[in-house]
Amino acid sequence: MSLVDYKGVLVYIEQRDKEIQKVSLELLGKGKEIADKLGEGLSAVIMGNDITGLAQELIYHGAEKVIVVDDKILENFATEPYTKALTAVINQEKPEVVLVGATSIGRDLAPRVSARIHTGLTADCTVLDVEEETRHLLMTRPAFGGNIMATIICPDHRPQMSTVRPGVMVKLDRDTSKEGEIVLLDAGLVASDLNIEILEIVKEDKKKVNIEDATILISAGRGMGSKENMEPLYRLSEELKAEVSGSRAVIDNGWLDKERQVGQTGKTVRPDLYIACGISGAIQHVAGMEESELIIAINKSHDAPIFDVADLGIVGDASKILALVTEEIRKS
Ligand code: FAD
C-alpha cells in the first residue's frame, strides 16, 4: 500500500463508565481542523460494552463517521483486547492521521497499536498542525526534559499517530443539527483476548481536584512567601468558588500538591479567569496557562514577565491585594 491510500483523520474516543472523556472531544475539535486542511473527513472510534448510544454525541461534536466496537470483552479497559480492536479499526479504515488522548489509557494503548501497524508515534504533543503541501502532520512536544519544543514528522509511514495532552486543544460547540454515519464493527474479539483478570476496581476519589476543569483558578507562586501566607488566596478562592493552583516553585516547596501544578511539567489549563499571584511568568509556567480567557497578574515587580501575557496587571504585594479584593467582594 502506498501512503496516498491512507485518508482522513481518526480520533480514538476514550470513555470511562460510559462517560466520554473531555480530551476526546478536544481532539475532535483539532481533528476537524486537520481534516479540513487535508481536504478529508473526520471519523471517531469508540469502544466498550453497551456504548453504542454514545455515538450520536460524537457526531454533535464534529465526527462525520463514528465506528463503534461494542463488545462484552471491552467492558473495562484492558490492554490486549483494546489494542486488538483499535488495530482492526485502523487496518480497515486506513486513516492518514490517528489522534489519541495522552491519558493513562492512551499512553498504554497508542504505542502498542503503532507497533502493531508498523508506524511511528509522537507522544504527549502540545501542538498539532499540518503542512498542507507535504501532508505531514507537524507534531510538537516538549523534549530534553522540557527545555526545548521539538516538532516531529512521520514522513515514511501511515497513519501519522500522536497522543495529545488533555486541555491543550479546543472542542467544538455541541451542535445537535449535525448528522453523520454510525458504523458497528466486529473486531473479531474472542474470550481469550482478555488475558487478564480484574479482581477489583478502585474508583478515583471524586473529590480529587482537577484544575483542568476549573472555571476560575487562583494560582500561587514563590512570591506568596510561605504556605501560611497563602491564607488570603484561599479566602478569595472561597468567595469566587475557584480552585487553587500553583507554579512549580510552590509545588517543590510543598505548599501545594503536585496535582495542582500548572505548566509544562504540570497541567495545561484554560479557565475563564486565571489569577497569578507572585508568579514571575517563566516560559515553562506560561506554556500551561497562556490560553486562559482572562489573565490577572499580581506581582510586586513592574517588569515581571507574567505581565506580558496578562490582560490586567496589578503591581504590589500579593497577600495584601488578595485580602483587599476579598474584603470588597464581601462588602458588595
Ligand atoms: P519565581 O520565579 O521565584 O518568581 C516569584 C515572583 O514573585 C517574582 O516575579 C517576584 O517579583 C514575585 N514576588 C515576590 N514577592 C512578592 C510579593 N510579596 N507579592 C507579589 N509578588 C511577589 N514552572 C512551572 O510553574 N510549571 C512547570 O510545569 C515547570 N516546568 C519546568 C520544566 C523544566 C524543564 C524547567 C527547567 C523548569 C520548569 N519550571 C516550571 C520552573 C520555571 O522555570 C520557574 O522556575 C518557576 O515557574 C518559577 O516559579 P515562580 O514564578 O513561582 O517563582
Automatic annotation (TrEMBL):
GO biological process: fatty acid beta-oxidation using acyl-CoA dehydrogenase
Domain spans labelled Electron transfer flavoprotein alpha/beta-subunit N-terminal: 9-198
Sites where the protein binds FAD: 222, 247-248, 261-265, 278-285, 299
Cited SUPFAM superfamilies: Adenine nucleotide alpha hydrolases-like, DHS-like NAD/FAD-binding domain
InterPro entries (alphabetical): DHS-like_NAD/FAD-binding_dom, ETF_a/b_N, ETF_a/FixB, ETF_alpha_N, ETF_asu_C, ETF_asu_C_CS, Rossmann-like_a/b/a_fold
Cofactor: FAD
The keyword Flavoprotein belongs to this UniProt entry's keyword annotation: yes
Cofactor binding comment, as recorded: Binds 1 FAD per dimer.
GO terms of molecular function: electron transfer activity; flavin adenine dinucleotide binding
UniProt keyword list: Electron transport, FAD, Flavoprotein, Transport
Pfam families xref list: ETF, ETF_alpha
Source domain of life: Bacteria
Lipid metabolism listed as a keyword: no
PANTHER family the record matches: ELECTRON TRANSFER FLAVOPROTEIN ALPHA, ELECTRON TRANSFER FLAVOPROTEIN SUBUNIT ALPHA, MITOCHONDRIAL
Family according to the record: Belongs to the ETF alpha-subunit/FixB family.
Protein name per its UniProtKB record: Electron transfer flavoprotein, alpha/beta-subunit-like protein
